[in-house]
Amino acid sequence: MSMPATSIKTPGRIDWKHEAGVAAIAFAVLALLPLFITDSYGRHILIMAFIYAVVASNWDLSLGYGGVFNFGHLALFGIGVYAYGLATKLLGIDPWIALVLSGIVSTAAAVIVTVPILRLKGIYIILVTFGFAQLVMQLILSQSAYTGGTQGMVRIEGLYIASHNMVRDAKFAYFYIALGILLLSTLFLRSLVRSRTGASIVALRDNEEYAISRGISLVRQRMITLASSAFFTGIAGAFYAAYQRNASVDVFGMSLSTIILSMVLLGGTSTIYGAIVASFALTIFSEFMADFGAWRPIITALLIIAVMLVYPSGLAGIASSLFNAIKRRRA
Amino acid sequence: MALLQVRNVTKAFGSLKALDNISFDVAPGEIFGIAGPNGSGKSTLFNVITSIPFGPDRGQVVFDGIEIQRKSGNDIARLGLARTFQRETSFDKLTVFENAMIGAVYCGRRRTSSEQRESATDALNLVGIERKRFGQTADELSVYDRKCLMLATAVAMAPRMLLLDEPASGLTKPEIESSIGLIRRIAERGITVVLIEHVLTFLMSLSQHLLVLNQGQVLALGEPRSVIADPRVIEAYLGTRKAG
Fold this sequence. Notes:
The complex is a heterodimer of chains A (331) and B (244). Chain A starts with 15 loop residues before the first helix and ends with a helix. Chain A has a domain at 39-250. Chain A has 331 residues and is an all-alpha fold. The longest helix of chain A is centred in the C-terminal third of the chain and has 27 residues, at 218-244. Chain A contains 14 helices and 2 strands. Chain A is globular, with a radius of gyration of 20 Å. Chain B has 244 residues and is α/β, with parallel strands linked by helices. In chain B, strand 4 (58-63) and strand 5 form a beta hairpin. In chain B, the strands form 2 sheets. Chain B has a 6-stranded mixed sheet, sandwiched between helices. Chain B starts with a strand and ends in a 6-residue tail after the last helix. At the A-B interface, helix 8 and helix 9 of A face helix 2, helix 3, helix 4 and helix 5 of B.
């Protein structure tokens, strides 16, 4: 007897309740960490890992799910950094409002950069988006009266929670704000990729002409993809500026882009979780290797290459293999 | 009134005229066959009608009373003109059910979520993909099943017209026979079918009208039996017998 059509949810996909349960446990564990990590440096490392995780997982949306070689993703982060700095220092806007505003400004920038790449593919998208990042950086440098040019912006206003002292709490409050941003970003990304819009983003990546023949608009979906990946990236940038209390054009450099891209690829694209786990792994691993001096980036790079050679699908591929092995053994 | 009117459509790639002044009509509810040797412009004709990936250089395409030659591919699809491709095509990393849902969701019709699911399920049932396979990703399917899935995504759109580009290519004889049955079932739903095939027997068993293209031009158009008896069609397919 056949089941009624309405009883079919998403065959072949993990039930969202199951996924939400596992994610809730993971975030609960993260939320308990400040009880064990009481020194401010340890918490700082985790805060940085959360920021990287937000940026990397949002990049995974456009690069992994969307198949858009957006090499200007870190420019969206940089726009968030400077939007926050300018909004709080120059316009005197409340830091919390500036934080959200920075996400909106990055989203608007992503919509603008989508226009020239609508009809492009592959290497040409890389060129245009890379050019976009350089353009934004040059624009910031040229407006040194407001942005501080090569000197950057200093003494940017930090976030606040009522009368709580954010400076002398061993980064306790910033830890939870960063974790909150990561939680909201992950909820948003996973909801999006599990939705019908998410399926259409993957459809366009898998076969553009076929997707168009089924009524999907390339313009609309590509804009949604890039704009969606920009909002929390911009907020992460704003948070970074509030947390560090300075802004510098270094955020537009190849160094940070390479680190975040390594996180996306090491984690395994088109998973969101992979990029988050890789962000934690690489940030924490890099700290453990601090004593190795100049050898630190070399060892890290070699390790990434080794993982990618054995598991081209990254950490998500390793997790998937383990999961399948356990399932087979149980069967 | 014809559901599809193609008028003086021309498409050139540099000096090569892939389509040269093509005109024909397709009536609602019929199965309309298009034949021709390799390189005659059959698939290019589908491309310019659907604007995927390009529209015509000149000429007019009218679908259901609306001029569509300047519209985008997705807008044309949402008007109810669906197509398949010569090679089996799928959204490889989406499941079978998600593939069908893409057609059901983005077809341009106002449907509730449960109507979309029903439409996707119905389309998959029609092409004979079993429910237990709905959760498989499309790249796990055989060539025949992927062709069926491509058809299902089109049927899930509930189109008024379906353009099928060589649905029998690469299939075994029993699979071709199944395809013929499937196309008949699709047509019985009131969907007008335009069918490209260079296997004439396949077309003869299905079409009410037949258009034969050769080197981008209309060679013959009419009732299938009279078209295949046309000496010019015989020459295009078999060549001329050398004297002596």
